[in-house]
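Note to self: keep these together.
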Amino acid sequence: MSTVKIAPVFAITTPSVSVTLAENRIGEVPFTVTNVSNRKLRGRVRIAPGPGAPAEWFSVAGDSEHDFDAGAARQFVVRIDPPLGAPPGTYTFGLDAVGIEHPDDDYSEGPSCQITIPQSAPPRLTTPRGYLTTLAGALIGGVVGELAVVLIILLRHHEGPKCNDLGCVIGDTIGEVILLLFLLFLAYVLMLVGATLGSGIALRIRRYLGAKLTATFLALLMVPWTVLMLATVFRLLDDHLIVMAVISPFLLVAVPAVLARGSVLLIRTHHV
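Structure:
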């Protein structure tokens, strides 16, 4: 019994099958996928990590699925971003292409690429570590989160008093207190979320490693730090609500942001 060999419908090429990552351990490898069949196809690329290379190290920049006219070519870029703790060494991966309508038949394997992760050198005192970026992103995100609640308060419609008896006045006062407490809690939650997202996005934009872990540490540190501030500094400012509102993003975010970034650097690189 003879086996019919199906001709590949995609041709996958790359200008280099061997890549050494830079000192920041981030790299990109371009691939060109060409539809070599005589029909229009909708295809998707997927990364095939080699032994010892976790799939989360790799991602396709942009859309991984496109329409291919007969003979058409598309370029895909594979982003390589191993975590801070990834051991140095040589790893392999490939990029495969598969047809959406007939994945079992329309399937092609790309060339095997070799990546080399260099040894992490101890950072010099002048090496940027991301503290300022973390702090700026966290403060901007925290302020934006708090301003959202301030805007809600300013836009809230205040009607004239409708109460004519003591019971109504007491009930209305209790309602206002409950609403104020809820808005304060909402402001804190939005500030925490904004600071966490802001630090992670800022580190990601500046291409610092450990962006997600730094944001996670910041979210975890802000809660106990807030409790400590409520028990100390804020007790001294009970009669200065405006001052508390102004300094809250800085006081509640700045220290946890610096501690979070320092913790990540210490854990992953043994240097702060």
